[in-house]
């Protein structure tokens, strides 16, 4: 695969993922105003089990098929990859049907673990209805994921990117239109509206599948030509292929489930713990704020940082395999620095502007402000866990990422109820932070053990980034106070948007100015920001 084609494919795939995630963030604003906190909690009750069952249904097979197809295409053994794909399709259809049926049937068993009917607004029947509505997506999504993996194995990223965007657009349009019709036209219940919203996952998946089938029809003649050129020198049994596939994919399925597993712990413990301390009446409101609305905001800097940093993982893998210790140390330094450089100021800025940020996206809510301010720092741990897990993959120690996640989940499970009874909603955040912190520390230790990497330089650079971030936060806090005074701030949406926009622009300007001034931008990104220095030089000459 040529470098230009690799870069083009990576760009297309990254663009598709970013567009999908941006759309996935934007839709929550009108969705919030349609269904409110009660609807947000219900949506989370349905979606968390669905995501877990989806990961179990696919079993990491799409990614593994992509790698297998790519490998055997390079050997001109095209038929092997095609036979594996056909077998995989049958397997995905079977696991999709089974997972859909199981989730549908066990919904009445799951719901009582979530709801405390003595205090909560939503009932067990409401939760059952929503879980069953989203379960139908499992009939389509596994098959769609495998077809995407097959195209990626053929170095064709366009089908995956376009199908992701179409899937998201169709899902969001159906979700918002359906909720609007139910709530505003038919004057229906929140439960019906949220059931429509979760069923939108099935409708969106059908849209994405149609795009992939169109690509398949279009590319079929080309695929037939490849089969005609098959060398036929390698033979593998289906059992041998699947054994290798599942062994390879299993660790990454588990790591990919990390966020959903943490949310599942909250789903099964949060309402009951809040009810035990007399806060059952507000527990679902708090749950929706914590596990739905705020979580969407916190993932913004995580997505940005990991998108930049994960591009360095292939170079880390190459340096490790070639035993190039100098290059490996350089790439690890750069990856950790980029993570901290992008995540730390975004997190601190979000915490400083917590009140207007939450009001700008949703509505003015003291609890939303408090939860966002406490939850924002967790983004650093989310980003570090994702990147260190990818690093473990790069140095072929991915099994330890499963160990670290298990340790973190155990800490979360051990502390969650206790901390909630002591600190209410904030306790759940502290338990999440504790779990991820344990996982990240373990991953960092394993990386050090197998690469002989030392963290002194990164620690010093992180302290420096922290100083720049503190300087930025002072400017942002002053700007916020001035704007609140000038606008006579009362939590209105327009006022909040103005404060967030101006605060973010000034904060980013201050941060990037000092980063450039002290050479941090050039150190991390090379010549990408050279235009800033050229402008200053021109002004100095003139």
What does this structure look like?
Keywords: Cell membrane, Membrane, Transmembrane, Transmembrane helix. It is found in: Cell membrane. The chain crosses the membrane at residues 12-35, 47-70, 91-115, 127-147, 168-186, 192-217, 245-265, 297-317, 338-362, 374-395, 402-420, 426-446, 458-482, 494-514. One of its GO terms (cellular component) is plasma membrane. With 542 residues, the chain is an all-alpha fold. It is 86% helix and 0% strand. The protein is built from 22 helices and no strands. The protein has helices spanning 3-26, 28-58, 61-74, 78-114, 124-135, 141-153, 158-185, 190-228, 238-256, 258-276, 280-309, 313-321, 325-352, 354-361, 366-375, 378-394, 399-423, 425-451, 456-487, 493-517, 520-525, 530-541. The longest helix is centred in the middle third of the chain and has 39 residues, at 190-228. The model has no long low-confidence stretch (mean pLDDT 84).
């Amino acid at each position: 695969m040529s470098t230009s084609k690799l870069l083009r494919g990576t760009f297309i795939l990254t663009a598709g993922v970013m567009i999908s995630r941006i759309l996935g963030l934007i839709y929550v604003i009108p969705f919030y105003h349609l269904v409110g906190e009660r609807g947000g909690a219900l949506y989370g009750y349905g979606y968390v089990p669905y995501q877990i069952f989806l990961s179990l249904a696919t079993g990491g097979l799409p990614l593994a098929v992509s790698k297998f197809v790519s490998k055997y295409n390079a050997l001109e053994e095209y038929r092997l990859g095609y036979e594996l794909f056909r077998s995989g399709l049958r397997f995905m259809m079977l696991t999709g049907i089974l997972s859909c049926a199981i989730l549908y049937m066990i919904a009445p068993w799951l719901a009582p673990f979530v709801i405390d009917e003595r205090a909560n607004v939503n009932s067990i029947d409401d939760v059952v209805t929503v879980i069953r509505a989203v379960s139908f997506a499992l009939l389509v999504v596994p098959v769609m994921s495998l077809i995407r993996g097959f195209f990626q194995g053929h170095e064709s990223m366009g089908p995956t990117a376009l199908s992701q965007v179409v899937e998201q657009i169709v899902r969001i349009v159906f979700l918002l239109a359906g909720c609007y019709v139910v709530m505003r036209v038919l004057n229906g219940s929140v439960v019906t509206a949220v059931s429509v919203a979760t069923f939108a996952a099935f409708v969106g998946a059908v849209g994405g599948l149609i795009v992939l089938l169109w690509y398949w029809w279009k590319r079929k003649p080309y695929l037939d030509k490849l089969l005609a050129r098959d060398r036929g020198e390698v033979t593998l049994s289906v059992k041998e292929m699947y054994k290798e596939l599942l062994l390879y994919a299993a660790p990454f399925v588990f790591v990919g489930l990390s966020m959903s597993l943490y949310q599942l712990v909250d789903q099964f413990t949060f309402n009951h713990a809040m009810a035990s301390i007399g806060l059952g009446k507000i527990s679902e409101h708090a749950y929706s704020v914590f596990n739905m609305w705020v979580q969407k905001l916190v993932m913004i800097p995580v997505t940005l940082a990991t998108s930049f940093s994960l591009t360095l993982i292939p170079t880390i893998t190459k340096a490790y395999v070639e035993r190039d210790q100098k290059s490996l140390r350089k790439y690890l330094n750069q990856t950790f620095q980029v993570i901290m450089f992008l995540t730390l100021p975004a997190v601190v800025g979000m915490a400083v502007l917590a009140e207007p940020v939450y009001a700008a996206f949703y509505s003015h809510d003291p609890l939303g402000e408090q939860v966002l301010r406490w939850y924002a720092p967790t983004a650093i741990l989310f980003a570090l866990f994702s990147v260190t897990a990818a690093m473990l993959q790069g140095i072929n120690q991915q099994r330890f990422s499963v160990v670290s996640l298990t340790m973190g989940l155990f800490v979360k499970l051990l502390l969650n109820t206790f901390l909630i009874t002591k600190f209410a909603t904030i306790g759940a955040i502290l338990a999440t932070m504790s779990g991820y912190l344990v996982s990240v520390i373990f991953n960092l230790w394993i990386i050090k053990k197998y690469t002989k990497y030392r963290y002194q330089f990164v620690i010093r650079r992180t302290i420096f980034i922290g100083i720049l971030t503190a300087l930025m936060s002072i400017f942002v806090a002053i700007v916020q106070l001035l704007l609140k005074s000038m606008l006579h701030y009362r939590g209105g949406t327009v006022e909040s948007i103005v404060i967030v926009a101006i605060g973010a622009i000034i904060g980013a300007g201050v941060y990037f100015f000092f980063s450039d001034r002290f050479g941090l931008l050039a150190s991390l990104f090379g010549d990408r920001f050279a235009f800033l220095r050229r402008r200053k030089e021109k002004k100095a000459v003139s």
